[in-house]
Write the structure tokens for this entry.
Amino acid sequence: MRYRVLGGTGIEVSAYCLGTMMFGAIGNPDHTDSVRVIHAALDQGINFVDTADMYSMGESEEIVGKALRDPKRRAETVLATKGYFTMGDGPARGGLSRRWLTRAVEDSLTRLGTDWIDLYQVHRPDHRTDIEETLAVLGDLQAQGKIRAFGCSTFPAEQIVEAHAVADRRGLRPFRTEQPPYSLLARGVENAVLPVARKYGMGVLTWSPLASGFLTGKYRKGQPVDLTSGRPSITPHRFDPEIPGNAAKLDAVEQLVALTEEIGCSLPELALAFAAAHPAVTSVIIGPRTRDQLDGLLKGAPLVLDDEVLDRIDEIVPPGTNLYQADGAWRPPHMTDPALRRRPVGDRAAAG
């Protein structure tokens, strides 16, 4: 396992990070087995574990807490979690306000069974809260020792720039990391997010390197897909070959499979090595549900792609190209609410 420094934090982390979204009700509900998978990852050199409060509504954090109950394991593990999404019923139980983040961090500390979080990330942007408010409370939580560093997740480049400008202007601590979606089939963050993160010296941990399962090798052109089970049952629109756009993904997969056969690796190994090859990327998040999946992913950890292979990949999926929009990626309010893109009816005629 290779290790890299996480941005300007001075924290050394493994080039692969164990993502724990699949531990709990939405993935592996067996706590004992999930703990075994986490321990196996740590025993194989991973020292970076990423979770979030909303993964199975806190259950994933509880499982991670059980896995890190031993003080030595906890001390040797860089533990990251996230907050933003609504937790439970009722108002004011989500977002990036001082009121909510103060509570969210306390709740995560309780579920994780720890006194500190090494990296706390705001899971998505919050258009209802001034970024100054968010940075201020995160800085206070860091000063209190409850979090050691903080960052953002799935922020567009312009909001990362705004956050750094506000931090500089107001004398606040800035985001130290960004966690974007990045894969062979979703290279859009190469346009601005990754260069901006690099400019500001931010660490980057990327999610969905297997493109929602398309880069596992399980889904191939011309082969039927069972849309009623597994990942296709959760997001059938990503896998239905009859839906426009999916054909391009399958075509790319076929070309990438041919490339793996030439260089002697598996498609998942190629996918992970590709994400890890970008100079802005610190760590690639893998999200196994079982021990077999973990072992299969870590098998390719030593793989380093040379320029010739990376050039071939660029020919298959050009740099900066998204062949699909990553599930769960953030969209700004003006793209989801038509009213924000339209003048009031009475003003339209006057506008000419």
Notes: The first strand starts at residue 3 and ends at 5. The two ends are 62 Å apart (CA to CA). Residues 3-351 form a domain with the TIM Barrel fold (CATH 3.20.20.100). The mean pLDDT is 93.
